[in-house]
Amino acid sequence: MNKRVPKTAAFLFTIRQKENEPLRDCMQRFVEAVHEVPHVNHELLASIMQQNLSPGRFKESITGKPPSTMEDLLMRSQKYIRIEESNASNPSLSGKRKGEEEEKESKKKEERKHLPPTGFQYYTPLNASRGEILVLAEQQGLISQWPTKMEDNPKRFKSDKYCRFHRDRGHTTEECHHLKNEIEKLIQRGHLKEYIYHYPQGRQFNRGSSALTPQDDNLPTAGVIP
């Protein structure tokens, strides 16, 4: 009589979720397979399950916070099984939730577009407004590339603020982070020396405190990006 050879953990990697297979059915097959593998490590189970699942919220959940035990894995799967079955029994609700999630993601992407660009750790203090410096830089042909048009936004259209650098509404020229970075780049290339603010003799710029200049809006608090 042939002795049955126990299956190894490698067998579990074959229990993959099929296309359009309900999570309940997939979990049932996986649990049955686990019972055929003696002494399998719980941490390994979570890793295998992550690879075997189709993309979805349950997979994201156990990837972000892996279950510590098999019991934990099963308990957490029940939550997503209920959600999946609830959505299947009410397609209109499922579509609504999907639409809400897509809308949230769209808003997040839009917000990220309007975040200030990554700039310098420290900015050179200036003795004039950025608007004045922009006029000179434009006259001398120092601006090689103007910023692209800002994304359409209803709130921006209603704004009474105008930026000469973007040539559009939404924020003022002085508030423009793109212009702030552009001016700093030009200074570091050796341009605009006449617009660098020099502190009076005996007074030092302490990066650990606030130091004001005639154009104090050009200086970030504590010498860093505001």
UniProtKB/TrEMBL annotation:
Sequence ranges of Polar residues compositional bias: 206-218
Region (Disordered) residue spans: 84-120, 206-226
Extent of Basic and acidic residues compositional bias: 97-114
Source taxon at top rank: Eukaryota
Protein name listed in UniProt: Retrotransposon gag domain-containing protein
Organism: Sesamum radiatum
